[in-house]
Amino acid sequence: MPGQLVPTGMFFTNGVGKHRHKLQSFEAALRDAGIAQFNLVKVSSIFPPHCKIVSKPEGLKKLEPGGIVHCVMAEAFTNEPNRLVCSGIGLAVSADEGHVGYISEHHGFGLTKSKCVDLVEDMAASMLATTLGFELDPDTAYDERREIYRSKGLVVRTRACVKTAEGDKNGLWTTVVAAAVFIY
């Protein structure tokens, strides 16, 4: 449909922030991720056909401070000392570049970076596979499902951008963000 905004590129970023106020810890995390200067609009989880993944510096050059920027974002907060907090974005792209890909997000507690990577990649790949008419038992291990997806040519690649942190030992708010940021 004419007039629709369809991103031509996307980059990943993440950050962590700490402050005595929750909102300011979120702002610090956005600043750490390099995206605090934009008006962020959260969107759902579709990676457009023919969209290219670019580096963060390349993507930031195409954005203007104060601009409205669309992103898929995961964010998690804690003020409990030593509590592990995580946010992650996963991407799964089909072998057919003309098909949409899927972006997943997770916000939670207790997952290490590697476990969060596995989770968000698994969720994105599973959502992509179902749109292609391929159903698997969700209780099957992700490594096994990943090999089945690849053998059928359903998923060419998965990627993840994850941030984890331990809650500040003095009870400051600790915020982690991960984002897939679209550019036009």
Short description:
The chain contains 4 helices and 9 strands. It has 184 residues and is an alpha+beta fold.
Description:
The protein is α+β, with helices and mostly antiparallel strands. The protein is built from four helices and nine strands. It has helices at residues 22-33, 56-61, 113-131, 142-151, and strands at residues 9-19, 39-42, 46-47, 52-53, 68-78, 84-93, 101-109, 157-166, 173-183. It is flat, with a radius of gyration of 17 Å.
CATH architecture: 3-Layer(bba) Sandwich
Q: How many independent structural domains?
A: 1
How are the strands of the biggest sheet laid out side by side? 2-5-9-1-4
**Mean pLDDT rating:** 92
CATH class: Alpha Beta
Q: What is the number of helical segments per DSSP (H or I, 4+ residues)?
A: 4
The residue fraction in helices comes out at: 25-40%
Instruction: List segments where confidence is low: pLDDT < 50 over at least 5 consecutive residues.
Output: none
- For the CA atoms, what is the radius of gyration? 17 Å
What's the name of the CATH homologous superfamily?
A: Pyruvoyl-Dependent Histidine Decarboxylase, subunit B
